């Protein structure tokens, strides 16, 4: 389900204005076309959706004044590129190991799984580097809970090794939004059902953050089934989680990430001296709901579009 909102209108207005500026600039100075090289970790549908959205936005703004080259796998990035876009962490590693003098936008990976690896490249770089992460701001999850389950006050969270890094931010957000946060940790040796047993007795809703251990093949269905049997709704981080049995999830699509990456590129090309915006989470997002789970839990909820508007309104007020 596609959400049409003021944020997308803002993108359109910004890009239209920049398009006029670029046309005048290139006409006046006769500059050669920009070389933008996009390196994909692999050629999958998700990556292709990202590329399609990126190309559409850039061509709408730059027209013929930019040449966009897309490569995948082990193909080396273009050394003559004005700017490199690395999609996925393996692609980012390959790009960052190559030429430190070419500006880079890296995206399509979690901040919490690679932060230490990413920072080791920064001292070596001569050109700007920025990142568009996959991770939603933790406040966004809590605002979805508030919109979907207004009477829920006790939020449980099951941390794994990666998601544990979000605990400080989540505690602060829960305090601001007046939630009581109940936290437990899961290791590779733990039985997820046993770990959940005491937690589910103390909460109104279970929040599952992205984490390879928590959502591994051996854990995801026992987690969802245990929560369902106890009547505890689960809020997840992907559409797949909703299909598997979560009540709802908030996430960003590859198309939305592609559009935001295009906006970051435009910011870079328009700035003087050229610089990127700082590393950032997704601006736009989608919400999915599992109506069957809602009915089974006896919950009456707003639809996806209404939930989206609620969460977006919370974010507008908090700015």
CATH architecture of the largest domain: 3-Layer(aba) Sandwich
User: What is the CATH third-level topology name of the largest domain?
Assistant: Rossmann fold
Specify Rg, calculated over alpha carbons. Answer: 21 Å
Name the CATH class of the largest domain.
Alpha Beta
Determine the mean pLDDT.
Answer: 88
Poorly predicted parts: 1-30
Key structural traits:
319 residues, alpha/beta, 2 domains, elongated, disordered N terminus
Write a short abstract of this structure.
With 319 residues, this protein is of the alpha/beta class.
Question: Would you write up a description of this structure?
Answer:
- With 319 residues, this protein is α/β, with parallel strands linked by helices.
- The protein has two domains: 6-134 and 253-270, Rossmann fold; 138-251 and 286-318, Rossmann fold (3-Layer(aba) Sandwich).
- It is 45% helix and 17% strand.
- It has helices at residues 6-29, 45-62, 89-97, 111-119, 138-148, 167-176, 192-200, 220-229, 239-244, 254-270, 291-296, 304-318, and strands spanning 34-40, 66-72, 83-87, 104-107, 129-132, 154-159, 180-185, 205-207, 234-236, 248-251, 286-289.
- The strands form two sheets. Strands 7-6-8-9-10-11 form a six-stranded mixed sheet, with helices on both faces. It has a five-stranded parallel sheet with strand order 2-1-3-4-5, sandwiched between helices.
- Helix 4 links the parallel strand 4 and strand 5.
- Helix 1 packs parallel to helix 10 and helix 2 (45-62) runs parallel beside helix 10.
- The protein starts with 5 loop residues before the first helix and ends with a helix.
- The relative contact order is 0.14.
């Amino acid at each position: 389900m596609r959400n049409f909102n003021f944020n997308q209108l803002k993108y359109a207005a910004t890009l239209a204005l920049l398009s006029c500026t670029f046309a005048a600039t290139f006409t006046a100075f006769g500059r050669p076309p920009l070389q933008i090289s996009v390196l994909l970790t692999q050629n999958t549908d998700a990556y292709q959706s990202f590329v399609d959205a990126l190309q559409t936005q850039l061509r709408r703004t730059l027209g013929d004044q930019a040449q966009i080259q897309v490569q995948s796998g082990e193909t080396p990035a273009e050394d003559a590129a004005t700017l490199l876009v690395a999609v996925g962490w393996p692609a980012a590693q390959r790009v960052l190991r190559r030429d430190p003098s070419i500006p880079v936008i890296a995206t399509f990976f979690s901040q919490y799984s690679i932060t230490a690896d990413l920072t080791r490249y920064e001292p070596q770089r001569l050109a700007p580097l920025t990142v568009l992460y996959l991770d939603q701001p933790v406040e966004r999850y809590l605002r979805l809970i508030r919109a979907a389950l207004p009477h829920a006050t006790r939020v449980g969270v099951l941390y794994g090794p990666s998601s544990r890094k979000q605990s400080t931010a989540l505690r602060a957000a829960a305090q601001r939004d007046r939630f009581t946060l109940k936290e437990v940790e899961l290791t590779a040796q733990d039985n997820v059902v046993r770990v959940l047993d005491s937690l589910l007795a103390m909460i109104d809703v279970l929040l599952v953050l992205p984490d390879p251990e928590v959502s591994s093949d051996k854990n995801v269905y026992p987690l969802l089934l245990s929560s369902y049997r106890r009547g505890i709704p689960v809020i997840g981080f992907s559409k797949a989680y909703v299909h598997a049995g979560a009540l709802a999830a908030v996430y960003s699509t590859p198309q939305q990430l592609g559009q935001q990456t295009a906006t970051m590129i435009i910011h870079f090309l328009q700035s003087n001296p050229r610089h990127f915006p700082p590393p950032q989470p997704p601006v736009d997002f989608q919400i999915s709901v599992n109506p069957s789970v809602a009915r089974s839990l006896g919950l009456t909820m707003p639809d996806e579009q209404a939930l989206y508007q609620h969460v977006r309104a919370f974010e507008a007020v908090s700015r």
